[in-house]
């Protein structure tokens, strides 16, 4: 069994930043991820609000994060963690291939795309239904597509898909978008139309998507649209399955609850990134990862609960 000071679960911005800070502080660390490094950042068509880059493709930024972290730590990809438990003073982590042991754990498992949960969505997933514009947009050049959502991700996807030559329409359940004004302005300047106050009720097709049935939430009107593809961009749900195994407290919204030092209610377990909620931006995820790593170092070398001189109470509301 490989043993470490800290094991970081998740190789997105939070996890990779945590790895850099942990090793630089002197901790033996490793990063485990069930997928490839980068997290949802790799799916972003263009990132324009990360300091140092006026505009950068999400995949390129993810590669830069990974390359930087690899200078310090081993990153194990495509090895999902299946179980985590506390055994004595150590945490035992089981993957589908190996078993690891650590004095502390940083959970940076991020989130997964939310689904519409409508008829046809599961049936046509990968056959016209997509959750990643940069992954699948190429296949829809010159075709009619519907982007579902009203936040930054949806508007960003619409801009990207329009830019590569897709015939894009955005559909949003409300009468105004939640996306940043700069993104909205860019989308409207590109001529992307919006179907307001409406939702997708059903996805239709034969061997692939051929259309969508939509409903206006205000008038109740139902109509069918002919489309070749549907990109679902309605947000994410936190990956908290491992946290639940350790009895970690969650917020009312289902995210891992932490204090301002990224401590959870379980000693020597920390969390950072999208899995703890908040504004869920790359820059804040990176900051949370750094905080979690430095807190883990402090707790391992000088536990606050054993030092009366430190004015730190640990887990806070």
Structure in words:
The model is unreliable at 309-317 (pLDDT under 50). The chain is built from seven helices and 17 strands. The strands form four sheets. Strands 1, 2, 3, 4, 5, 6 and 17 form a seven-stranded mixed β-sheet that branches. Strands 8-15-9-10-11 form a five-stranded parallel β-sheet, covered by helices on one side. By secondary structure, it is α/β, with parallel strands linked by helices. Helix 2 (58-70) links the parallel strand 2 and strand 3. It has helices spanning 13-25, 58-70, 133-136, 152-163, 181-189, 241-245, 282-301; strands at 2-9, 29-32, 74-76, 81-87, 90-95, 99-107, 111-113, 129-130, 144-148, 167-171, 194-195, 198-205, 209-216, 222-226, 229-232, 236-238, 269-271. The longest helix has 20 residues, at 282-301. The two termini are 36 Å apart. Helix content is 24%, strand content 27%.
How is the topology of this model organized?
Layout: E1 2-9, H1 13-25, E2 29-32, H2 58-70, E3 74-76, E4 81-87, E5 90-95, E6 99-107, E7 111-113, E8 129-130, H3 133-136, E9 144-148, H4 152-163, E10 167-171, H5 181-189, E11 194-195, E12 198-205, E13 209-216, E14 222-226, E15 229-232, E16 236-238, H6 241-245, E17 269-271, H7 282-301
Parallel strand pairs: 1-2, 1-6, 2-3, 6-17, 8-15, 9-10, 9-15, 10-11
Antiparallel strand pairs: 4-5, 5-6, 7-16, 12-13, 13-14
Helix pairs in contact: 1-2, 1-7, 4-5
């Amino acid at each position: 069994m490989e043993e470490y000071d800290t094991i970081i679960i998740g190789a997105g911005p939070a996890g990779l930043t945590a790895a850099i800070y942990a090793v630089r502080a002197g901790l033996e660390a490793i990063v485990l991820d069930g997928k490839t490094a980068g997290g949802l950042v790799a799916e972003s068509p263009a990132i324009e609000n990360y300091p140092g880059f006026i505009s950068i493709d999400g995949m390129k930024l993810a590669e830069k994060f990974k390359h930087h972290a690899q200078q310090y730590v081993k990153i194990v990809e495509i090895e999902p963690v299946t179980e985590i438990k506390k055994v004595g003073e150590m945490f035992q982590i089981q993957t589908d291939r190996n078993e690891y042991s650590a004095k502390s754990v940083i959970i940076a498992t991020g989130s997964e795309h939310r689904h519409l949960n409508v008829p046809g969505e599961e049936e046509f997933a990968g056959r016209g239904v997509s959750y990643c514009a940069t992954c699948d947009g190429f296949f829809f050049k010159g075709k009619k597509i519907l982007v579902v959502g009203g936040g930054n991700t949806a508007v960003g996807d619409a801009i990207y898909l329009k830019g590569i030559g897709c015939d894009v329409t955005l559909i949003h359940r409300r009468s105004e978008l939640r996306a940043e004004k700069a993104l909205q302005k860019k989308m409207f300047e590109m001529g992307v139309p919006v179907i307001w106050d409406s939702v997708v009720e059903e996805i239709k097709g034969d061997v692939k998507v051929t259309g969508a049935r939509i409903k206006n939430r205000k008038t109740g009107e139902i109509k069918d649209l002919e489309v070749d593809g549907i990109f679902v961009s309605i947000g994410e749900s936190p990956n908290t399955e491992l946290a639940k195994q350790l009895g970690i407290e969650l917020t009312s919204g289902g995210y891992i609850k932490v204090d301002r030092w990224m401590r959870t209610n379980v000693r020597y377990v920390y969390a950072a990134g999208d899995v703890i909620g908040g504004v869920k931006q790359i820059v804040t995820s990176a900051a949370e990862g750094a905080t979690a790593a430095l807190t883990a170092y402090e707790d391992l070398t000088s536990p606050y609960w054993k030092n009366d001189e430190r004015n730190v109470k640990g887990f806070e509301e």
